[in-house]
């Protein structure tokens, strides 16, 4: 097995192999780091409660400079930077938990920190040379420099490979000359350090030139760098979002990040790991709103009862708990995979992003519904939370694109094995801009397994359901591949269902592992609530999986597509009652 | 200046307190513990004095193992040393705690002893006075402003409807009130620095004490709010209710 081939729990899942050693036991934070993290969380909470006024930040669409400055003092811009470069060396787990805590106080503030560390400086951290790291990381750690990630362009959003920004080598001067513009760049107005993706012509072995993407470090002080006006947005208004222009910017050769022509891989790997910050942050956003909603429903009475006593309100509250529990279990299982460094986590990170951002939107929407008309009033924070959380399913890979990626990357492994269509699947996955290392060899050597290790008796039903539906996902994926062959890339509705099933399965195994591990530590008696949450999620999940898998065969996709095509022609809703 | 700050770990103010089944204690299972907020003012004052006059700040805390995290919070703010007096739990009788703290304080030869005016869990508000007795030192409580010139301390105290200014000389005990300063927030740098400081653990046999906790009870449920009116006409009635029913004014 080549050394860059890493096992992937979810890819193996599609192939009918249950790599349970990757998900059991549920990971725990290192004790010393946990203490550090908890002290920092406590300190930040105090700071935020004293100083951060989210309503004002939203109204003025700006985070006050004093807040940014004080956060620099607190060290919050250097959390994930190793100590040798003057940062604090947080693990991904601790970092994501911190973003969760920051989002709970203010999503705009969290996004500013997140865009800096999750994506802005991540490429330097992952692919930078020692000189580059020494030069920039210490300044990024103190916040003397703030970072931004510049990929999206007017003509290239989801189809990121279509970027037009150009880099032309000037061998005499030893610089790349950069021209183009990037839109909707978070921290665009305040950043001094930009990770920029641009195309340069690179000759192949035959000497023919092809445009390939390379990544560059660009700094604010280089002539020709400028940012546009601040965008007027629906939410996360305090975070800076601007266009960034590059007008004949001379970037020294030594500022090339990673290899020439390999920039696309850089861009994607950064997002793969960066997505967890967004997922974790979303949880923090729900936490805050839920507290406000709980205060209200335990006080307000209608029909001489507290709102919290009505069954339909209970249904909402419990659903939020079940969904948060599952999303949280998935997220911190995955951050630990990132931290251990020897697992392919690309699918899991996409799953966490999808799950958390959708749970975020639904939960906050339900919180608003629970408090009724009050939730609609600008005087109360519910509407702001809903506006703030709405961006999450859109950026860092839209949830649609990520679902297609999960399904195709999952099936690709099987496709390679079936020796027919694996190669064909590679192209669209690349097109989605989501490269992955293949773990085929890893799986081929394993026999299909239908069982995972034994778990605590209180979870056996959930475990059996997981095993059963994992097997069914594998069969469904196989049927789909045989049925559609290469054309699966055009059957997005089918792919989406497979992705949904895989996400639910990962949620099931993450909660089972978490609760099983917890019972081992604390005893069943003390885990009653967690057992209930795990089992509730499993019951809901397998029913969704069944529905999704049944519908890979039997569905009304054809009708739906025809309706959509008709609507597209009409460009409006053309019906009216007689 | 050699300064000691006595701190206590207490449940977070946002914690919902649950009692043990026999109502003899608070159930600690899901409690988030923090550094007593009044002690933060004491730590901050100590740090400011150190920054002005040089010297060293030592944190002293008595309690079970978990209190080390409160000690770490204080160290993370910038204190230099720490002593943890090990005890299975916080004694019910503050005099027992005072005796143990005094024994450690005596060894340290401190110029100034700072602490919070009260701990927000048991609210005894006795520690400064008890320590004064044990150590035979002056104690100034509820301090909102502190000036030290040479050996002379000028302290402003908050009293009902007025501020009282008192003077005494070092060494002395000062109990901090909210308003004394604005405590700094622990930074990641401070936290990492604090990690490297060894907390000195002291085993000590504690006296039995004369107080015993017989029972804890939950406070009575708050009754629902009442709207008295929506214009100035309602003010007299509101005042009457606040005075006679709610008994808050
Ligand atoms: C507030 C904000 C901050 C941002 N910050 C940054 C940043 O810091 N750096 C950066 O580089 N970018 C940033 N972006 C850009 C963001 O990543 C893109 O908006 C996102 O990738 C989607 O691209 P798009 O908006 O062009 O949508 P499009 O790609 O045009 O997509 C529109 C819709 O079509 C769907 N769609 C597209 N292709 C397919 C397909 N093949 N199959 C099915 N559905 C499809 C999408 O899912 C989406 O629903 C930011 C955007 C916003 C709004």
TrEMBL record, chain A:
Its cofactor is FAD. InterPro entries: ACAD9/ACADV-like_C, Acyl-CoA_DH_CS, Acyl-CoA_Oxase/DH_mid-dom, Acyl-CoA_Oxase/DH_mid-dom_sf, AcylCo_DH-like_C, AcylCo_DH/oxidase_C, AcylCoA_DH/ox_N, AcylCoA_DH/ox_N_sf. Residues 36-144 form the Acyl-CoA dehydrogenase/oxidase N-terminal domain. It catalyses: eicosanoyl-CoA + oxidized [electron-transfer flavoprotein] + H(+) = (2E)-eicosenoyl-CoA + reduced [electron-transfer flavoprotein]; octadecanoyl-CoA + oxidized [electron-transfer flavoprotein] + H(+) = (2E)-octadecenoyl-CoA + reduced [electron-transfer flavoprotein]; tetradecanoyl-CoA + oxidized [electron-transfer flavoprotein] + H(+) = (2E)-tetradecenoyl-CoA + reduced [electron-transfer flavoprotein]; oxidized [electron-transfer flavoprotein] + hexadecanoyl-CoA + H(+) = (2E)-hexadecenoyl-CoA + reduced [electron-transfer flavoprotein]. It holds the Pfam family Acyl-CoA_dh_1. One of its GO terms (cellular component) is membrane. The keyword Aminoacyl-tRNA synthetase does not apply. One of its GO terms (molecular function) is acyl-CoA dehydrogenase activity. Keywords: Acetylation, FAD, Flavoprotein, Membrane, Oxidoreductase, Phosphoprotein, Transit peptide. Its main location: membrane. Residues 261-407 form the Acyl-CoA dehydrogenase/oxidase C-terminal domain. Residues 148-249 form the Acyl-CoA oxidase/dehydrogenase middle domain. GO terms for biological process: fatty acid metabolic process. It is a peripheral membrane protein. It is found in: Membrane. Belongs to the acyl-CoA dehydrogenase family. This is Acyl-CoA dehydrogenase. It comes from Caldithrix abyssi.
From TrEMBL, chain B:
InterPro entries: ETF_a/b_N (IPR014730), ETF_b (IPR012255), ETF_beta_N (IPR033948), Rossmann-like_a/b/a_fold (IPR014729). Its cofactor is AMP. The keyword Transport applies. It comes from the Bacteria. Heterodimer of an alpha and a beta subunit. Belongs to the ETF beta-subunit/FixA family. The keyword Metal-binding does not apply. One of its GO terms (cellular component) is cytosol. Keywords: Electron transport, Transport. Signal peptide: none annotated. One of its GO terms (biological process) is carboxylic acid catabolic process. This is Electron transfer flavoprotein subunit beta. Residues 23-211 form the Electron transfer flavoprotein alpha/beta-subunit N-terminal domain. One of its GO terms (molecular function) is electron transfer activity.
């Amino acid at each position: 097995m080549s050394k860059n081939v890493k096992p992937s729990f979810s890819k193996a899942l599609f192939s009918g192999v249950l790599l349970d050693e990757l998900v059991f036991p549920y990971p725990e934070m290192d004790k010393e780091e946990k203490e550090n993290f908890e002290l920092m969380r406590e300190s930040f909470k105090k700071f935020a409660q004293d100083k951060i006024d989210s309503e004002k930040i939203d109204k003025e669409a700006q985070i006050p400079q004093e807040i940014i400055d004080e956060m620099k003092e607190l060290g919050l811009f250097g959390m994930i930077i190793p100590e040798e470069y003057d940062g604090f060396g947080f693990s991904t787990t601790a970092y994501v938990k911190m973003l969760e805590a920051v989002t709970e106080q203010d999503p705009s503030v969290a996004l500013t920190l997140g865009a800096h560390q999750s994506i802005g400086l991540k490429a330097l951290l992952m692919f930078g040379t020692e000189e580059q790291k020494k030069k920039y990381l210490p300044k990024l750690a103190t916040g003397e420099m703030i970072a931004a990630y510049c990929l999206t362009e007017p003509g290239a959003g989801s189809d990121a490979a279509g970027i037009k920004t150009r880099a032309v080598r000037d061998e005499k001067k030893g610089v790349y000359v950069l021209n183009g513009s990037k839109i909707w760049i978070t921290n665009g107005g305040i950043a001094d350090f930009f990770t920029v993706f641009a195309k340069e012509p690179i000759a192949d072995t035959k000497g023919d030139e092809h445009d390939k993407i390379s990544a560059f470090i660009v700094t604010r002080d280089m002539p020709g760098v400028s940012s546009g006006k601040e965008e007027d947005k629906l939410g996360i208004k305090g975070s800076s979002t601007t266009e960034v222009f590059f007008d004949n910017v001379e970037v020294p050769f030594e500022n090339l990040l990673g290899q020439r022509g390999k920039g696309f891989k850089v861009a994607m790997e950064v997002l793969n790991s960066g997505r967890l910050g967004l997922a974790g942050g979303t949880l923090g956003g729900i936490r805050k709103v839920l507290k406000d909603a709980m205060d209200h429903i335990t006080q307000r009475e209608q029909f001489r009862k507290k709102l919290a006593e009505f069954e339909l309100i209970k249904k909402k509250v419990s659903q939020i708990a079940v969904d948060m529990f599952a999303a949280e279990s998935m997220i911190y299982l995955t951050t630990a995979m990132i931290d251990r460094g020897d697992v392919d986590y690309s699918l899991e990170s996409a799953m966490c992003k999808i799950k958390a951002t959708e749970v975020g939107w639904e939960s906050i929407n339900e919180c608003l519904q629970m408090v009724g008309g009050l939730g609609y009033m600008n005087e109360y924070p519910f509407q702001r939370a809903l506006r703030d959380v709405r961006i999450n399913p859109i950026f860092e890979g839209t949830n649609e694109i990520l679902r297609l990626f999960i399904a195709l990357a999952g099936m690709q492994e099987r496709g390679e094995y079936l020796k027919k269509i694996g190669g064909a699947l590679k192209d669209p996955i690349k097109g989605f801009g989501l490269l992955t290392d293949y773990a085929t060899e890893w799986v081929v050597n394993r026999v299909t397994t239908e069982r995972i290790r034994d778990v605590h008796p209180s979870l056996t039903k959930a475990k059996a359901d997981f095993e059963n539906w994992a097997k069914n996902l594998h069969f469904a994926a196989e049927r789909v591949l045989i049925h559609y062959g290469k054309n699966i890339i055009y059957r997005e509705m089918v792919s989406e269902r497979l992705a949904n099933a895989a996400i639910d399965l990962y949620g099931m195994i993450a909660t089972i592992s978490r609760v099983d591990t917890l019972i081992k530590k604390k005893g069943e008696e003390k885990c009653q609530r967690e057992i209930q949450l795990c089992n509730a999620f499993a019951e809901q999940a397998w029913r969704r999986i069944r529905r999704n898998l049944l519908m890979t065969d039997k569905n009304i996709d054809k009708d739906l597509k025809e309706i959509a095509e008709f609507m597209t022609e009409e460009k409006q809703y053309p019906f009216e009652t007689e | 200046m050699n300064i000691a700050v006595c701190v206590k770990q207490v449940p977070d103010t946002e914690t919902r307190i649950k009692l043990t089944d026999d109502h003899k204690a608070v159930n600690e299972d899901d409690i988030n513990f923090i550094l007593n907020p009044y002690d933060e003012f004491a730590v901050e004052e100590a740090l400011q004095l150190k920054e002005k006059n040089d010297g060293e700040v030592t944190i002293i805390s008595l309690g079970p193992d978990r209190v080390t995290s409160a000690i770490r919070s204080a160290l993370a703010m910038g204190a230099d040393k720490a002593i943890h007096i090990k005890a299975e739990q916080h004694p019910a009788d503050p005099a027992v705690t005072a005796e143990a703290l005094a024994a450690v304080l005596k060894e340290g030869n401190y110029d100034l002893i700072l602490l919070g005016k009260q701990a927000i869990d048991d609210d005894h508000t006795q520690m400064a006075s008890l320590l004064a007795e044990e150590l035979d030192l002056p104690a100034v409580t509820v301090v909102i402003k502190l000036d030290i010139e040479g050996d002379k301390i000028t302290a402003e105290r908050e009293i009902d409807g007025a501020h009282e200014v008192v003077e005494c000389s070092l060494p002395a005990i000062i109990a901090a009130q909210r308003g004394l300063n604005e405590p700094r927030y622990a930074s990641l740098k401070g936290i990492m620095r604090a990690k490297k400081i060894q907390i000195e653990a002291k085993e000590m046999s504690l006296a039995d004490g004369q107080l015993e906790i017989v029972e804890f009870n939950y406070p009575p449920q708050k009754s629902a709010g009442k709207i008295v009116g929506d214009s100035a006409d309602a003010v007299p009635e509101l005042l009457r209710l606040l005075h006679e029913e709610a008994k808050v004014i």
